[in-house]
Design goal:
Blueprint lengths: L1 E7 L2 E6 L10 E10 L2 H8 L2 E2 L2 E2 L9 E9 L11 E4 L2 E2 L5 H4 L10 E2 L13 E5 L3 E3 L5 H20 L6 E5 L3 H10 L5 E5 L3 H9 L4 E3 L6 H8 L4 E6 L4 H10 E9 L12 H7 L2 E4 L7 H9 L9 E5 L4 H9 L7 E5 L1
Parallel strand pairs: 12-13, 12-15, 13-14, 15-16, 16-17, 18-19
Antiparallel strand pairs: 1-2, 3-6, 3-10, 3-19, 4-5, 6-7, 7-11, 8-9
Helix pairs in contact: 3-4, 3-9, 6-7
Length: 342
């Protein structure tokens, strides 16, 4: 089968590799339709690592995908050949203490698509996944199915934040994850403030529920938010993974506010203004991907409660995968979500 291999920093090649086979009776062989390029994929492409997770080249990355079931194991009951599915890329063991406590996203034995040392990714024609990770999505387009993975993170982040009706919140960084948080926050409140350095993303946020947008490159975005919310906002979703947005979050949060750390920093360490945090008694909550929110994401799109179509801005073929990665890395051409179609 055809696979897009990461062969070095900033280097991609297309190769023929063996097609995977069903080994477990509850597995499903999936034919990949399209794969989204995520920020974590960009980290592997540019730096070859996220923290201690370092790529050993060559490696297949990618974890956001739409697929169709090509073959199913003997004990698969929910999925049949030909079904269109959304894939939850996190395979948990179901037996460790974290899984038993309802925390499958921090499973002690977690394996994740396209994560070094765990599983090869889905930037290829076929993958095998457990039936439990396959969600029927007949009402969704291919692009919508790809976007279910980032939307599930948005669902989970908003759930974990405790955001209530009429609370105020700020989203710092509105790439696909930040925009997913926006769509889910909009189901709770209309007081949503957004910052980003890419004008096209600010416009997308303004068109999809943001009350006010700001660009830190041309204005004091934190000051602008505090003019509208003088006592500070209730929740900040930090989705950029930058030190400056961490600092901005502490500045604009009200006393007793909650900082949701969603973005993945490039650096191994970030810092906080501990005295400002202490005086305000800020709560910090790390968001680790998502936990049982894929079905919720599928349903939100299928029922029309959220519209994710605007995020799908660029489509590429496997032969132009490097161009796709470069465009996403450099935020060129107003890209929000780029997908590679097989």
């Amino acid at each position: 089968m055809k696979a897009i291999l990461l062969t070095g920093l900033g280097r991609i090649s297309i190769s023929d590799v063996p097609e995977p086979k069903i080994k477990d009776e509850k597995d499903v062989l999936l034919k990949i339709e399209a794969v989204g390029i995520c920020g974590s994929d960009v980290h592997y492409y540019r730096e070859g690592r996220i923290g201690e997770q370092a790529v050993e080249f060559p490696f297949i990355i990618g974890h956001e995908c739409s697929a169709a079931a090509a073959e199913v194991g003997r004990k698969v009951k929910r999925v049949k050949a030909g079904d269109k599915v959304v894939v939850d890329p996190a395979v948990s063991c179901g037996t460790c203490g974290q899984c038993r406590a309802g925390r499958k996203n921090t499973c002690r034995n977690l394996r994740f698509l396209g994560c070094p040392g765990q599983m090869e990714g889905c930037l290829c024609e076929y993958i095998v996944m457990p039936e439990a990770n396959c969600y029927l999505a007949e009402k969704l387009t291919t692009g919508q199915a790809v976007l279910c993975e980032p939307l599930a993170i948005g669902v989970y982040a908003v759930e974990q934040s405790g955001l209530k009706e009429n609370d105020s919140c700020a989203i710092l960084g509105v790439g696909p994850i930040g925009l997913s948080v926006l769509l889910c926050s909009r189901l709770k409140t209309k007081k949503i403030y957004v910052t980003d350095k890419v004008e096209e993303r600010l416009q997308a946020a303004a068109n999809n529920g943001a009350l006010r947008t700001g660009n830190p490159k041309r204005e004091d975005a934190a000051k602008e938010i505090l003019e509208s919310e003088p006592t500070g906002v209730d929740v900040v979703f930090e989705c950029a993974g930058q030190q400056e947005t961490i600092d901005e979050a502490i500045e604009i949060l009200r006393p007793g506010g909650r900082l949701m750390v969603v973005g993945i920093p490039q650096e191994d360490r970030i810092s906080f203004d501990i005295h400002a945090m202490r005086r305000k008694e800020i709560t910090i909550i790390n968001v680790r991907r998502q936990n049982d929110c894929t079905r919720k994401a599928v349903d939100l799109i299928a029922t029309g409660k959220v519209d994710v179509d605007f995020m799908l801005t660029h489509k590429f073929k496997p032969e132009t995968a490097r161009e796709a990665f470069e465009k996403v890395c450099e935020y060129r051409d107003g890209v929000i979500k780029a997908v590679i179609e097989f």
